[in-house]
Amino acid sequence: MKRIGLLGGTFNPPHLGHLWIAEEVRIAMELEEIWFIPTYTPPHKVETKIDASDRLNMLDLAIRDNEYFKLNTIELERKGKSYTLQTIKALKADYPDHDFFFIIGADMVEYLPNWYKIDELIQLIEFIGVKRSGYKLETSYPINVVDIPMVDISSSMIRERVFNERSVKYMVPDPVYRYMREYKLYEN
Question: Model's pTM, two decimal places?
Answer without folding.
Answer: 0.93
